[in-house]
Design brief:
Elements (H helix, E strand, L loop, with lengths): L2 H12 L5 H14 L6 E5 L7 H7 L2 E6 L2 H10 L5 E5 L13 E7 L8 H10 L1 E12 L1 H5 L5 E4 L2 E4 L7 H9 L3 E9 L11 E8 L1
Parallel strand pairs: 1-2, 1-4, 2-3, 4-5
Antiparallel strand pairs: 5-9, 6-7, 8-9
Helix pairs in contact: 1-4, 5-7
């Protein structure tokens, strides 16, 4: 199922479903960004606002984007702070919907649904201030190789969201070609048990 349709359908149960990937990525984001200095945030793929709440509590200005109007409706209902602005946007098309530049851009469980990483990193690089950061939190490629994909249950059965496999070097090389240098890479495991496949990959880049 293509992402917009899938997340529109998933929105009503997204927060209540058991979802190890969603929950562990939220932990990873907070761990990875907690010691970085930034005041303005471009949140790409805000979903129902699971990370937006944390961004708003720690920053002055958050622009939160999502492709799904149903997911955005959930986020808006939870987050009423004047520091947060929500807009619907398709990031696979030119980012003319963003006029400012930000200290941080964050992608949470978004890029697995995007085929062309080069275009995405080209666009985001133009929206980040020099010395700013880009955070990527994704379902780990090892999990993807083993067959894991974003999915949810409906009355008609399991719905699988369209996904693309990206190697770790695909992220790094696409970012580097657009003035974004890797400064940190980390992996998160279920129950912190490192003998299993890692579930979440995080990467932090800085704009040179």
């Amino acid at each position: 199922m293509e992402p917009q349709q899938a997340y529109n359908s998933w929105a009503s149960q997204y927060d209540s479903n058991k979802n190890k990937t969603r929950d562990l990525e939220a932990i990873a984001l907070r761990n990875e960004l907690n010691n970085l200095a930034f005041k303005s945030v471009l949140e790409i793929g805000c979903g129902t606002g699971k990370n937006t709440e944390w961004f708003v509590s720690n920053n002055k200005n958050v622009l939160a984007l999502d492709l799904s109007p149903e997911m955005l409706a959930k986020a808006r209902s939870k987050i009423t702070s004047e520091k947060a602005t929500f807009i619907q946007a398709d990031i696979t098309k030119p980012w003319t919907f963003i006029n400012d530049r930000y200290d941080l851009a964050g992608f949470s469980l978004v890029l697995e649904h995007i085929d062309d990483l080069n275009f995405i990193f080209s666009e985001v690089s133009q929206k980040i201030k020099p010395g700013g950061f880009v955070y990527v939190g994704e379902l780990h490629p090892f999990k993807q190789y083993a067959g894991s994909k974003a999915r949810f249950e409906t009355k008609t059965g399991t719905q699988i969201v369209q996904c693309f496999n990206h190697n770790i070097t695909d992220f790094i090389n696409a970012a580097k070609s657009h003035c974004l240098d890797l400064i940190k890479l980390n992996e998160y495991f279920d129950d912190d048990y490192r003998n299993n496949l890692p579930r979440i990959l995080t990467l932090i880049f800085t704009k040179r």
